[in-house]
Specification:
Length: 987
C-alpha cells in the first residue's frame, strides 16, 4: 500500500510552487548561520541594483567589502533599537553612501528606473537549514540574501498537524539562535500543515504565542475558523498562490509589518518600562485592506464601506494600516485619490494607540495630527485646509465646523469611523458630510438653497466613508452597507464573532450564564390604590424595589460569595468582576452594601470601586456622592487603579459598559435590563483573552433571561444582513399622521423657512418666527395630555426618520424639507409637562418577602446566528414609542409579581394572535362602525375572553394568566384597542 503524502513530499511540493513564483532554489550550504544570511545572494543583489555605490565602496574596503557590509547589517539589526524590518525599509549608510536592501513597488508608473529595480529583488528559498548544530528548519525564505520567513511543515496524512509544528517551535527552537532572534532574525515563523497555518513573530520558548493565519471557513452565516476544503488543491494553497508571491511579500514588508512600542510607568520605581512587539497582519486584516484598496482604486470616492469586524479583530491596527495606505493610493491614471484621511472616533480622547501604530509604519513628520482635548473646531478647520495627510478627531468636533470650513469642494476625503453605531445616523454624521461636502455655494431663492442642503446631507461625491464596527445597527447597515445578490444590505467585509471565538481571540461570554430571579410583595393598600395604576406610579414602585435595602443586601451576599468561591482564584488570583447597576443611586447603595458586607464577614483581599458620572443624593441623606468622593482619587485614575491588585470589583452605572478593555475581567453581575446592541457591548467587556491563562467567564444575571441574551447576540454572531430598506412612503405616512393634528398653517411654514434661509435675520423676523411656533404650541395645548404626547412622539419620529432618509438616499422633496425645518424648531420650542403634582408615593410603599432565587445555569450556549435585521419602521403594530415603553413597564411588573420571564416580543406576538381572532368577529366589526372608540371598548373587552380561550393552544401560559387576572388583561390589551378599533372601522 502506497503512502499518500509524506512530509518530505509536501516540502518538495512547496519548493516547486515557490520556484514557479520565481524563487531561486538554493542549497542549505549557502546559509551563514552567524548572520542569518545567504551572503552570495546579498552581494549579487547589491551589485546588480547599485553598481556605482558598490564600486565606490570596493575602492575603500577592497577585499573586506563583503565582510564589512555583512557585519554592518548585522550590527544595525541586532542593536537595542534596531530591527531587520527597519533595515529592509530604510537601508544602511556606509561611508556616507546609501545602500538599499530592497525596493518597494512605486506608487505610480512615472519612474521606470524604480520599477526596474523593484523587479530586481531576489527571492530565494532553502530546505533543511541548520540554524545551529541542534536546530534543523524545514524551509527558510530569503529576500536579497536576508532570512525573512521560516516554516515548520507537517503532513496530516502522515499523522501530524500544525500543532506538532507549534510544539517544535516552542520546545526545540532557541529564541537566541540568530535565525530566530526577535526583531533581528526571521520576521515571521509559520507552523503549517495541509489544512491550517499559524504564525508567530517572537519565539519565547514555552510562552511563545501563535496566532492563526487562516482564511476562515465558509461565508456569511457559516463563517468560522479554519480554511475551506477544496477538491483540486490543498486548503492552505493561498500561502503559495498569494501570500508568498513576490508582490505580496514586498507589500507586507513595506506597508504592513512594523515594530509596536508600548511604554508603561512602573508604579514602584516610577521608571518607564518599554516593550516591543513585531506586528504582522492576521489574514483577515490583510484581506480587508487589500480588498478596500482595490475597490477604492476602481471607484475612487463613489462608495461607502462597512467593515464588520468582531472584538478581538485587531481593529486599531486595521484602521492604522488603512489610513496609512489611503494617504498614498493612486488610481489607474497615477492620480492621488484622497487629499486627506480623517479618522473619527467616539472616544473623547483620541486613541493614542492608534497614533503610535500609524507612526510605527512610517516615521514622517506631519503625517498625522491628533485633535486632542486642547484643540477646538478652529484647529480642526485649519488642519482640514492644510497639508496634514491624516487627521484623527472625535465626532463631537464636527458639528462646530459645518459653517467654518470653506473651499473644500476640490479636495477629496476618506473618513474612517471607529466603532460606527447609531450616532453615525444622526446630526453628527450629517455634520461630517456637510463639512466635507462638495455642494456648490450660490445665491438663490429659498427652494434652491433647501435643495442644495439636501444634496450636501447625502452621499458626497468627494467623500468616501469607511465604517468599522462589531455590532452594526440596521441604520448603520443602511448608511454604509452594500446590496448583495439577494437584495439585502450587508457589510463590505466580515470577520465574525463566531470566527473570533473559534480562533481563540475572544471568549464566548454566554458559556457560563446563570439567571437569578427576584420576587417580592407590595403592601395591599398601595396595590389597591387606583392612583398607583399610572405609569409614573409603577416606575416609582419599581425604583423603590430596586433600591430596597433588603433586596440590595441579599444580592450583595450572592455576588460576594460567588466571586469569592468561584471567580477570585482565576488568572492566578488576579481575576476581577464588574457589577452593572441600574442607576447612579443604585451604584452608591450597592457600593455601601458591598463594603459593609466585607467588613461584617472580615474578608480580606476584596475591595470595590464605583463608576458613575456627576453627583447624586440618596433619599434621607443630604450627602452629595461622586465617584471621586467614594473612591478616594480622581476619575481619570480609575482604570489604572482598577488594574492593580488593590481592587477586584467595579460597580458601574452606565460608565465603562462599552469601550472598556480590561483582560482580567472574568465575571459580570447584571442588575439592569439590557437589550440589543447594548446587551452585546456590555457583556463583551468579558470577552478579552488573558494569556497565558486559560480564562473562564461567568455571568450572574438578576434581571435578564438567558434567552434574551442569546437573542441579542444572534444578529452579530456571524454576519449581519439588512432585509428591508428605507422608503419615502413611511415618511409620507408619518406626515399624514402629524397633519391630522392640524398643528401648523402651511403659510406659516413657508414664512418661517423664508426667515431661516434669509441672508441676515433681523430681530423682528426672530419675533415673527417665535410667533409661528407659539401658534402651533397653543394648538397642541388644546389636546388632552396623552394625545399631546402622541403628537410629539410622531413629530420626533418624523424628524429622526427624515434625517436618516436624507443620508442614505437621493430623496428630495422641498415642501417636506420645509416642514421638517419647522417641526425641528417646534420640538425645541415646546416643553410638555404633566398637569398637576401627580401622586407622591414617598414613605407609602412597603415591600417585603424578598427572595433571590437561582435559576437555570447555562454552560454551553449553542448560539444560532440570526443575521437578518430590519430597519425600525415608522409604525410597529400601531405602537408608538410611548406605548412600547408602557407595554415594557407592564410586562416588567407582571414578571416581578409572578416570577415569570415574558419579554415584549412574546407579548406582541400574542397580541397579533388575538388581533387575528378579533378581526374575524362580525359583532366587533359592527360595533366599530357604529360606535365611538370608548363605546367600542365595552364590546372589545367582552369579546377578548373568547379570543383568549380560542388562542390557548398557541400561547397557553400567557393567555391563561390574562384570563385569570382582569387587571392585567385590561392593562395589556387596552394598549391595542385603538389599533383594532381603527382597523375594523376602516375594514
Amino acid at each position: 500500500m502506497n503512502n499518500v503524502l509524506s512530509e518530505k513530499d509536501y516540502q518538495k511540493f512547496l519548493l516547486e510552487r515557490l520556484a514557479d513564483n520565481g524563487y531561486v532554489i538554493r542549497k542549505a550550504s549557502h546559509f551563514d548561520r552567524l548572520f542569518a544570511m545567504d551572503r552570495e545572494m546579498l552581494m549579487k543583489f547589491l551589485a546588480d541594483t547599485q553598481p556605482d555605490t558598490m564600486d565606490y565602496l570596493r575602492k575603500i574596503y577592497k577585499d573586506d567589502l563583503e565582510d564589512t557590509i555583512v557585519s554592518f547589517i548585522n550590527a544595525e539589526t541586532t542593536k537595542a533599537r534596531g530591527s531587520l524590518i527597519d533595515v529592509l525599509k530604510h537601508g544602511i549608510e556606509i561611508s556616507n553612501r546609501q545602500l538599499d536592501l530592497m525596493y518597494t513597488k512605486p506608487a505610480t508608473t512615472f519612474n521606470p528606473e524604480l520599477t526596474k529595480k523593484y523587479g530586481q529583488n531576489i527571492f530565494s528559498v532553502m530546505e533543511e537549514v541548520w540554524a545551529s548544530d541542534k536546530e534543523r528548519i524545514d524551509v527558510v525564505i530569503f529576500l536579497n540574501g536576508l532570512a525573512i520567513i521560516s516554516f515548520e511543515l507537517k503532513c496530516n496524512t502522515a499523522g501530524q498537524s500544525y500543532q506538532d509544528a507549534i510544539y517544535q517551535y516552542r520546545t526545540e527552537r532557541n529564541p537566541k539562535t540568530r535565525l530566530f532572534l526577535f526583531k533581528s532574525g526571521c520576521l515571521v515563523n509559520f507552523a503549517m500543515d495541509l489544512e491550517e497555518v499559524y504564525m508567530t513573530t517572537k519565539l519565547a520558548g514555552e510562552a511563545t504565542f501563535f496566532l492563526p493565519f487562516n482564511m476562515g471557513n465558509g461565508e456569511g452565516v457559516t463563517a468560522g475558523a479554519g480554511n475551506p476544503a477544496f477538491e483540486d488543491r490543498y486548503s492552505v494553497s493561498y500561502m503559495w498562490e498569494d501570500i508568498l508571491t513576490k508582490d505580496t511579500v514586498l507589500d507586507l514588508i513595506s506597508k504592513f509589518i512594523f515594530v509596536e512600542v508600548k511604554e508603561k510607568v512602573d508604579d514602584e520605581t516610577g521608571k518607564v518600562k518599554r516593550s516591543e512587539n513585531l506586528i504582522f497582519p492576521r489574514y483577515h486584516q490583510l484581506d480587508v485592506i487589500r480588498k478596500l484598496l482595490a475597490d477604492v482604486r476602481e471607484n475612487r470616492t463613489a462608495q461607502n464601506y462597512l467593515i464588520q469586524h468582531s472584538a478581538g479583530s485587531g481593529k486599531t491596527n486595521s484602521i492604522a494600516w488603512l489610513a496609512h495606505r489611503l494617504t498614498s493610493l493612486h488610481d489607474a491614471d497615477n492620480k492621488i485619490i484622497f487629499d486627506n484621511v480623517i479618522i473619527v472616533t467616539d472616544r473623547v480622547v483620541v486613541d493614542r494607540q492608534l497614533q503610535k501604530a500609524i507612526m510605527g509604519m512610517e516615521h514622517k513628520a506631519g503625517l498625522i495630527r491628533v485633535m486632542d482635548d486642547k484643540c477646538n473646531s478652529t484647529d480642526l478647520a485649519i488642519a482640514l485646509n492644510g497639508n496634514t495627510k491624516i487627521i484623527a478627531t472625535t465626532i463631537q468636533k464636527f458639528p462646530y465646523i459645518v459653517d467654518s470650513v470653506k473651499g473644500l469642494k476640490n479636495k477629496r476625503f476618506a473618513v474612517i469611523i471607529d466603532e460606527a453605531h447609531s450616532s453615525t445616523a444622526g446630526k453628527d454624521m450629517a455634520a461630517v458630510t456637510m463639512s466635507l461636502g462638495s455642494g456648490e455655494q450660490f445665491d438663490g431663492d429659498v427652494e434652491d438653497m433647501i435643495s442644495d442642503e439636501i444634496k450636501r446631507n447625502g452621499k458626497q461625491a468627494n467623500v468616501s466613508m469607511f465604517a468599522f464596527t462589531a455590532t452594526p445597527k440596521p441604520t448603520t447597515i443602511q448608511l454604509f452597507g452594500r446590496l448583495n445578490t439577494k437584495g439585502q444590505r450587508e457589510a463590505f467585509h466580515v470577520y465574525s464573532m463566531k470566527q473570533a471565538i473559534e480562533e481563540g481571540f475572544i471568549l464566548d461570554v454566554l458559556q457560563n450564564y446563570t439567571e437569578y430571579s427576584t420576587f417580592y410583595q407590595i403592601n395591599k393598600e398601595i396595590e389597591d390604590d387606583p392612583r398607583c395604576k399610572t405609569n409614573a406610579a409603577k416606575r416609582q414602585i419599581a425604583r423603590f424595589v430596586e433600591l430596597h435595602d433588603t433586596n440590595i443586601s441579599q444580592r450583595i451576599e450572592v455576588i460576594v460569595e460567588h466571586f469569592r468561591t468561584t471567580v477570585m482564584q482565576e488568572l492566578g488570583g488576579q481575576a476581577k468582576a464588574m457589577v452593572i447597576t441600574a442607576s447612579r443611586q443604585a451604584a452608591v447603595k450597592y457600593r455601601q452594601a458591598f463594603e459593609d458586607y466585607i467588613v461584617k464577614k472580615g474578608y480580606e483581599g476584596i475591595h470595590a470601586l464605583v463608576a458613575f458620572s456627576g453627583k447624586v443624593k440618596l433619599p434621607d441623606d443630604e450627602t452629595e456622592y461622586t465617584e471621586a468622593f467614594l473612591n478616594g482619587f480622581p476619575e481619570d485614575r480609575l482604570t489604572k487603579e482598577f488594574d492593580t491588585d488593590a481592587y477586584q470589583v467595579l460597580l458601574v452605572a452606565n460608565k465603562y459598559q462599552t469601550g472598556f478593555d480590561q483582560p482580567k475581567l472574568c465575571a459580570m453581575y447584571v442588575l439592569k435590563k439590557l437589550r440589543g446592541v447594548n446587551a452585546v457591548q456590555t457583556l463583551s467587556r468579558l470577552n478579552r483573552i488573558c494569556p497565558p491563562y486559560d480564562k473562564k467567564t461567568f455571568v450572574l444575571d438578576f434581571v435578564n433571561s438567558y434567552e434574551d441574551m442569546k437573542a441579542a447576540f444572534a444578529p452579530y454572531y456571524t454576519t449581519t444582513l439588512l432585509s428591508n430598506s428605507v422608503t419615502p412612503n413611511a415618511i409620507y405616512d408619518l406626515e399624514a399622521k402629524i397633519d391630522a393634528y392640524a398643528l401648523f398653517d402651511p403659510a406659516d411654514i413657508d414664512s418661517a423657512n423664508e426667515i431661516l434661509y434669509a441672508e441676515k435675520v433681523t430681530g423682528k423676523q426672530k419675533q415673527r418666527l417665535t410667533f409661528f411656533l407659539q401658534k402651533s404650541k397653543k394648538l397642541l395645548d388644546h389636546y388632552e395630555y396623552e394625545e399631546q404626547r402622541e403628537a410629539v412622539a410622531a413629530m420626533r419620529s418624523f424628524v429622526r426618520y427624515y434625517e436618516f432618509l436624507l443620508q442614505v438616499s437621493c430623496f428630495e422633496d422641498v415642501e417636506l424639507h420645509k416642514k421638517y425645518n419647522f417641526i425641528a424648531y417646534l420640538l425645541a420650542y415646546i416643553n410638555i409637562k404633566h398637569p398637576g403634582a401627580g401622586f407622591n408615593l414617598d414613605g407609602k410603599i412597603k415591600a417585603s418577602n424578598f427572595i433571590q432565587k437561582k435559576g437555570e445555569e447555562h454552560v454551553s450556549p449553542n448560539l444560532v446566528a440570526k443575521p437578518v435585521m430590519k430597519l425600525p419602521t415608522a409604525e410597529h403594530f400601531g405602537l408608538t414609542e410611548d406605548k412600547e415603553q408602557r407595554l415594557s413597564e407592564i410586562i416588567d411588573e407582571i414578571n416581578s409579581r409572578t416570577g415569570k420571564s415574558y419579554d415584549n416580543d412574546v407579548v406582541v406576538k400574542a397580541m397579533l394572535q388575538i388581533r387575528d381572532i378579533l378581526m374575524k368577529s362580525e359583532r366587533l366589526k359592527t360595533s366599530a362602525k357604529n360606535n365611538t372608540q370608548t363605546d367600542f371598548e365595552f364590546s372589545y373587552f367582552d369579546d377578548i375572553d373568547d379570543a383568549l380561550i380560542e388562542g390557548l393552544s398557541q400561547n397557553q401560559d400567557f393567555f391563561s394568566l390574562l384570563l385569570s387576572n382582569e387587571e392585567m388583561k385590561r392593562q395589556v390589551l387596552g394598549i391595542f384597542s385603538e389599533e383594532i378599533y381603527k382597523s375594523l372601522r376602516d375594514a
